[in-house]
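We close this part of the discussion by returning to an individual protein. Part of our work consisted of pairing the sequence of a single chain with a tokenised description of its backbone. The amino acid sequence and the backbone structure tokens for this protein are reproduced below.
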Amino acid sequence: MIRKSVPFLVPALLLALLFAAPVRAAENALDLAPDEALAFVVVNRLAETDAKLVDLGNRLQLPLPSFLGQIKILAKIKGGLNEQGTAVLALMPPKEGEPIPIPIPVLFAPVTDFGAVVAALEPDDADAPIVQVRMMDHAFVAAGKGDYAVFTEARHRDVLQQILDAPGRARKDVAPMRSWLKRNDLAVVVTRPGVVLFSTKAREGLLQAKSSLADMPEKMKKDMEAAVAVFGVYDDALEAIEKEITTYAAGMRLGKNGALRLTDWMRVSPDGQLAKIIAEIETPEQDLLRGLPRRPFVVAGGGHLSEKTLEVMMRLSIGVIKAAPQMYGLDEQQADELAKISTRSMQGVRGMAMMIGVGKAGDPVYNDIAFVMTVDDAQAYLARYKETIEAMNRLVEGVERSILKGTKLTEIEVAGGPALQVSMEVPLAPGVEEMPGYDRMMQTFFGSGGKITAFLAAADDHTIVASYTNKRLLEQGIEVVQGTRPGLADGRRLAAAAAMLPSGAQWVGFWSPKGTVDFINRLIPALTPEGAPEFRLPECPATPPIAIAAKTVPGGVRGYMVVPAAALEAVGKMIAELKQSHIAAAAPETAPAEDH
């Protein structure tokens, strides 16, 4: 079945890019498709989008051909088309009884002259209501509906007839997205039937994978316990997707300033739990990165947290603990008690920010990780945290083996004020200690001793600052909160990226290309086996980071990612250098010329 369906996808997508009309056509084509459609692929402003994609490929040193030019050659169509507008590819439900259920692609192609279009595609009877045509040696059927030519694979003639018979009407599921669809160059919309099908098939796949573990030897079952536990979490998440999400869409737009903008839009059921959680989320009144020190970083982000959000996160974590008793050492009753303990510790938390810094050669990876929490009462939070650690230690005291054991809390002084130091064993699956190079890896990440050490302190009445292994980083966070040291958000490049995001976002994140490359190059020597040749990524110039945000909107959540033009060019430069080094490494050595 895959071989039968895949040949249609390539020519159908090629036709989708070619048969274009004004932007208005995208809306009308969506309205022509039956309500059963699973998803739509929308291509706006064909010629302009084609040129943008070619330019993007060139900037990334990954040259792309002009799809429009290739289509013209393959289709041999000379008239009846508008290359300046929009095309839509709809995915219809697979037929029942198929061994491999694959959605059926249907192309809605705006045309000015249906006859001229099909004449170039070797029609068997150009005057028939449904015409069989050929492209790339593959059979299609086509029919006119209004100002559109509708195409699908020849063996799905009944699906085309169903579309021709369906009344055209405005689709309510995409109505809120129409203006958003127009702004994007490319977009994908997954409808409610598509969401349900995705969730159902994914859950069936998880069940099959879990069932296959039943035949494994007992030792392997124990080693796979954590993976099985995660399967349960995934199943719960997929079930929630089916119940809560009504429509999902993602789009891409290349701006005039050269930046790449990716957006998505998740619409939720008004009566579901997600809608209640979203309703509780407030618009932030302060910098979401407040308290993070200004330093080279890999990723950084922050956002608002509600009590319901924390409750969901806690429920997922406890689900994993219950599903893996051999790893955590807790039965269901103890896991429920741990949930109560942990929930108390998070009372009054309203927001969180974190940063993974690049760090310096020789320092542990965890040496440059910082957290900041916004709370109702900082001193009350620290008191509850202390009580939580003590209660957790009592809970696992009689457990023979648990990754939760061994947590030690000490009261210390940092920056002239009280603070807490927490030491804990690294939570690893059984048998990991026997891996070659284990001790070296632990020292690389956590420093000598192989334990995680964290520091917490109140920076003011409503702010908790925390760091791993590095007490000085905690002091710097306190100074940022108190206004005596510049923060991460004060950086010029980060501010330039943040300005590209929408105002009022409840969560923001930043990913530094240079920081990522520097971080990887710092880790390579520590993780490369002794005697092995050392690889190193080319240097990446400093650029504004990639900016990410999420913002609640009526009925759902919108996501944003902006890749600045300078970041694209920096990545392109690195790819070019990697290509050049690969070519140089692959070139045969030239023997020195002999003297005569």
Observations:
- The first helix runs from residue 2 to 18.
- Residues 19 and 109 are 5 Å apart (CA to CA).
